[in-house]
Amino acid sequence: MIAISVILPSLVNPQAGIVHCMPHIKVHNWQLLRNLKEHFKITCFIGHDIRSFALAEHYFGATQNCADSIFVRIHHGAGAGVVMGGEILLDNRYNLGEIGHIQIDPLGERCHCGNFGCLETVAANSAIENRIRQQLEQNYPSQLKSNNCSIKAIYQAANKNDPLAIEAIKHVGHHLGKAIAIIINLFNPQKVVIAGEITAAEKVLLPAVQNCIKTQALKDFHNDLPIVTSQLAHNSAIGAFALTKRAM
Predict the structure, then answer these.
(1) Is the dihedral of CA 61, 62, 65, 66 positive or negative?
(2) pLDDT digits (tens, 9 = 90+) for 2-55
(3) What total number of domains does the chain contain?
(4) In the chain, pLDDT over 70 holds for what percent of residues?
(5) CATH of the domain at 152
C-alpha cells in the first residue's frame, strides 16, 4: 500500500489536512490528516468529496477531453467542482463551489446551514423523497407509495411516465439549472457534468436543466455547451483515488 485517501462532505483544508466542519457530524478543526499519518505511518491525502469526484471525472470520465469543466453532484446534498486548465479550482481558503447553499427560495425549507431555501432543500435525495411523500399524503395520483419513496423508486417511476415522479424531477432540474447557469456565467466551461442517482432519469432531468440554462446563461456561453451525466459509478471510491493519482 502506498497511500490512503479520504474524501468528505465538509469544509476542508486539504493542504493543512484539517476538516473545519461537516454537515451531519459535529467536528471543529479536526486534524484528520495528521491523525491518519501518525497512526498508519504512510502518505495520506484528504479532500472534499465532490471536488475529488470532479477531478476523477477529468481523469477517467466524461471530461477527459476538456481542460475546463463543471461537475455537479446531487446526493445527500448538492455541490460542484470546477476544473480549470485540468486542475481543480481552489482559492487560498480551499473551499468553493458550494452551490447547494445558493438561496433559491427565501420562503423555503430551513437548511442545515441555518439559512432558508437553499438549493439543497430542493435538490438532494432526501429533499426529493420528502417532497414526493408529502404529495402522496395529499392524494396526488402516482404509482409510488408513501412507504417506498426512495430516490431509486422515484427515478424508476419517472422512466415509466409516472406524472408525480416526472413533476418532482423537473422541479429539481429547474432549480438546479438556475444554479448551474450562475456557474456557467462565471466560468464559461467546455462541458457540464451532472452526477447522482437522479441522473438515471436523465431524459426528464436534463431537458429541465438545459431549458433553465438557455434562459439564464449568456448565449455565447451556453451555445453548443454539452450537459451530460457522469460516467463514474455513484458509490465509487474513485474520487479518493484521484487525489492519489494527482500526487503521483
Answers:
(1) negative
(2) 999 999 888 888 888 999 988 778 889 999 999 999 999 999 999 999 999 999
(3) 1
(4) 97
(5) 3.30.420.40
Instruction: Please count the residues of the chain.
Output: 248
pTM for this predicted structure: 0.89
Q: For residue 109, give the DSSP letter.
A: P
How many Cα atoms occupy the beta-carbon half-sphere of 206 within 13 Å? 16
Does the CA dihedral 51-54-60-64 come out positive or negative?
A: negative
Domain that holds residue 165: 4-247
Q: Which three cell numbers stand for residue 179?
A: 444554479
pLDDT digits (tens, 9 = 90+) for 123-169: 999 999 999 999 999 989 898 888 888 999 999 999 999 999 999 99
Largest CA distance in the chain: 58
Contacts of 247 (CB under 8 A, 6+ apart): 3, 43, 45
For residue 102, the one-letter residue type is I
Grid cell of 134 as nine digits: 408529502
pLDDT of 52: 92
The CA distance from 122 to 202, in Å, is 17
